[in-house]
Amino acid sequence: MIRSELIQKIADDNPHLTQRDVERIVSTIFEEIIHAMCEGNRVELRGFGAFSVKKRDARVGRNPRTGEAVPVDEKHVPFFKAGKLLRDRLNGD
């Protein structure tokens, strides 16, 4: 499902909300998740999962074309861990 499909589904399920209101709600939720993660915080949505940030240390990688050693800088990457309810539904339990 893409963002526009999510917005349309929420708008269809809530006829008292306008499409523009739903777009603002979805954007606000995503922005708050992004903001929290940028500050290094963990975001947990009960039953769905948790978003967090993991630090990857600097290392020496390889250029796959030439095999030459290439330095790779330290970076922070988003990480998602599915919640128990989501895992159970995916596995048919």
UniProtKB/TrEMBL annotation:
Domain of life assignment: Bacteria
Extent of the signal sequence: none
Pfam family, one: Bac_DNA_binding
SMART domains per record: BHL
Keywords for this protein: DNA recombination, DNA-binding, Transcription, Transcription regulation, Translation regulation
Annotated InterPro entries: Hist_DNA-bd (IPR000119), Histone-like_DNA-bd_CS (IPR020816), IHF-like_DNA-bd_dom_sf (IPR010992), IHF_beta (IPR005685)
Any single GO CC term annotated in Swiss-Prot or TrEMBL for this entry: chromosome
GO molecular function (one): DNA binding
Record has Transcription regulation as a keyword: yes
GO biological process assignments: DNA recombination; regulation of DNA-templated transcription; regulation of translation
Physiological role: This protein is one of the two subunits of integration host factor, a specific DNA-binding protein that functions in genetic recombination as well as in transcriptional and translational control.
Subunit structure: Heterodimer of an alpha and a beta chain.
Family recorded in the similarity comment: Belongs to the bacterial histone-like protein family.
Protein name per the record: Integration host factor subunit beta
Gene name for this UniProt entry: ihfB
